[in-house]
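Put briefly, the fold is written as integer tokens. The lines below illustrate.
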Amino acid sequence: MTQNPVLTDLTALHLHRARANADGMFLHQTAADEVEDRLQLVKKPFSKLGLITGFADFWESRLPNMTILPDDDTLSVEPASYDLLVHAMALHWANDPVGQLIQCRRALRPDGLFLSVAFGGQTLHELRACLGQAESTVTGGMSPRIAPMAELRDMGALLQRAGFALPVADSLPLTVEYANAWHLMRDLRSMGETNALTGRLRRPTARRVLETAVQLYQNNYQGTNGRITATFELIFLTGWAPDESQPKPLRPGSAQQRLADALKTDETKLPI
């Protein structure tokens, strides 16, 4: 039986997250604000709440009274045990994102809500390009340095594949300014988001590669104020565990009123 390749080295990921500090939590702050806003729009009480994340201390302070669950490949959840599951800033490192979503859907009671926030495909596209070009120029090869992250359309499709009802996917692009790429890379360490790919280079990157990447970044992504810009994209996923009480789409041709009547206009038939 063919085994899927393991994208993320979970041991390295946990070590990187352990080095994260308060200075690197500003994107988590934005993500938490958005999650809270979305939850406030849901006019439904929840009695059993679960929070899946690799940053338990931060997220527990923002979403208290929730059961903390580590974002392991196999989640510690029982079927139909939660009314609400929040997957916070971790799905982009999952070795099997579809499997994570399926596990979450099964862990929800009927009409339970799933809400996820994670980095999306536009995140750090500038740094990815500069590091790739620098390494290719200096060494003649390339190694994986930034995790491949799914695009918005792909994430919406994953919700449907996982069996969620009423799936919604939307994104929030953010632009952050830095003095230079060294400061950006230092911030990534503070976030616990440095390279944890299984196929990563297992020795220190040559200084010349990094210096070339920093110069490429300055040349190509410098703003008018002399600072560089870095893109981060937060993708939010919302879905419900299927239930008979949920609204269903009408059968095609079952409308009781013409659109032209509702708009109070004449209907013009197209020529055949």
